[in-house]
Fold this sequence. Notes:
The complex is a heterodimer of chains A (95) and B (149).
Chain A: E1 5-10, H1 16-31, E2 36-41, E3 52-56, H2 57-63, E4 71-74, H3 80-93
Parallel strand pairs in A: 1-2, 1-3, 3-4
Helix pairs in contact in A: 1-3
Chain B: E1 10-14, H1 19-32, H2 38-51, E2 61-65, E3 76-86, E4 95-102, H3 110-121, H4 125-131, H5 135-143
Parallel strand pairs in B: 1-3, 2-4
Antiparallel strand pairs in B: 3-4
Amino acid sequence: xxxPKIQCVCGFGCGSSLMxxxxxxxxxxxxxxxxxxxxxxxxxxxxxxxxxxxxxxxLAERIVDRADVPVIIIENFMDSSEVEEKxxxxxxxxx
Amino acid sequence: MEELxxxxxxxAKVSAADWKDAVTKAGSLLVESGDIKxxxxxNMIASxxxxxxxxxxxxxxxxxxxxxxxxxxxxxFSLINLEKGVxxxxxxxxxxxxxxxxxxxxxxxxxxxxxxxxxxxxPGAVQALSECEDDVSxxxxxxxxxxxx
Lengths: 95, 149
């Protein structure tokens, strides 16, 4: 299986998306799953090649209609159980 | 642990009328220290107005920031907690801890941002920050108990 590229998106790609990316990396490590993660901003994220976008609800509205890849909404970037559930479900959907 | 937020960039039990006032007060600490220009505060407020309250990334906590720009003189952070929480219009309201982040570009602040994020993501960390009664406890809470002020 090819390693999926997960894009974590916030307004500018440098603040909250980094927190989300770290939370996702933690889960991947813990569950021994393999994925590449990187940060993007909401303005340009659709032109960055990736397999899935993780994003907050407010920002998702701006891209969900135009996205070619699944868009997964995270309500609370620092809630590790929410992030874990959604990352695990996404990774399982690839198998 | 190492110092990530200076004592001069920390203020406990700030009173704020609303979210704009709270963001302004958090940002003002960095204006006073010469780390950002006042415009950056306006940019942070405009960002919330434009994108919505997504910066309220977890219960009670906002990561206030704007895009990297010339109004940022040094990569820097400030931290305040509020006497009384304010509403951003987020499901994670009310917010009573605000970390203001200023970065010159998308890369240079990464290492420190990751260190701060790690501390904030520890269970109970935001709650502990919200309960600090004075600047020194807030300073120790974010930087580590043994840090000399």
